[in-house]
Amino acid sequence: MEILRLGTLGGLLGLDGTAVGQFMVSRPLVAGALAGWLLGDVSAGVAIGATLELYQLVSFPTGGARFPEASTATVVAVGAAAPFPDVGAFPIAVALGLVWGHLGGASVSLQRALNTRLTPEATADASWGSVAPSVVAARHALAVVMDFARGAALTAAGVGIGRRVIGALAAAWPLDAAASRGLVLVGGAVSAGILLHDKGGFRRQRAWLAAGLAAGVVGARFL
Amino acid sequence: MTGPLTRCAVVSTFLRSFLIQGSWNYRTMLGTGFAWAMLPGLRRIFRDDPDALSRALQRHLEHFNAHPYLAGVALGAALRLEADGTAPAVVSRFKTAVRGPLGALGDALVWAAWLPFVAVAALALYWLGLPGGWTVIAFLGVYNVGHIALRVWGLRAGLAAGRDVAGRLTRADLAGWARRLEPASVFLIGLLAGALLTAPDGLREAGAAWIGLAALAFAGGLVGGHRTWRPAAMLTVTAVALIAAVGVLT
After folding, report:
1. Which of B240, B242, B248 to mutate to test the interface with A (most CBs of A within 10 A)?
2. What is the number of structural domains in chain B?
3. Whole domain around residue B225: which residue ranges?
4. B191, A191: Cβ pair inside 8 Å?
5. Which residue on chain B is closest to A186 by alpha carbon?
């Protein structure tokens, strides 16, 4: 039942990724909080979601590009880690989320290829042709429903597989909590560097970066 | 309202614009979604002629792509042109002309500037100690104020200006807004880095070795740009798998 609920959440959040709205409830930070809320522990969900958000800072749902699907991946990571209190559940769940994001991205490409067969084609010649409004509405709606089903199935399968993986590995995880967090944050730091690269690089922006860094250090110490 | 277009038809088109990518595909991209979103307006324009409605719908199924938040500019302008009785070939040429700029402007403003700006701010607040639930509410609230405002502006601009919407886009200076966000975004990247380095649930308790590695990773991303993203993710997954294997085997 829990996997079914997580699958439904994954399906809904997957829709927000491209097909419906793009209100960014599909971002890992939000998806993690929602999955955590569904499982009764929002803060655990946000901890995984925020870490995956750090990785996904430079990954955006641009129309034609293939990108990791972070929404379903985050629900999978949070859902798979939830039953396990071990320290190792957190880093393994983050790694699982990174892998599942790429599987999700591949499934989005497949869905789009299916949509190509599904959607009616425009007639580009002088006579233009015609199509019934109901046909356009039905095909469009069917594509949305299929996308939901794709996200839901992908999430449910991921949670099922992920729980087996984490169950097999987490108890024997050799690092403590602080080092485990360090391990996954190191990978995420690359994205922050890429973002600075996109914003003009260190030389051009070093004054703003230094000001922010100082504010962050002071803020984290005293807030 | 513009000619036969009622407020209800325009609101319906606006709401449908949220699903414009619902049937995104490799042949016509947003084509089907664009035609479906046009339908309430086209029904008003061709309300006495079902055949003309079907033909108009068929025309708008053609290939179209744009940033989804700015697709409303083209939707509004195309509806205005249809309402004015503009020749189909002219409407088609107009859509072809605007799709590139609407994609590029949207990518620069939303995906490259607004979303990272709000996401980095939210992450910085989270690692500075804001509770997770409030962080998420703040992220969604702030992000969607900009998101919805852009969609509303786009559809209104398209409806009002029709074929002359390019002038509105130029005056709005969307690319300029993206540039103006840059310093604040860099400040927030610094804020996030500082919070990650010193927050108790960041790197502080992990020790100097992890802090050094994180600084190296940050520098790697800064120098290498986007080509370092995938190797970094793969390296993380590999490291986690190896450490887990060591744990199981020892």
Report:
1. B240
2. 2
3. 207-250
4. no
5. B214
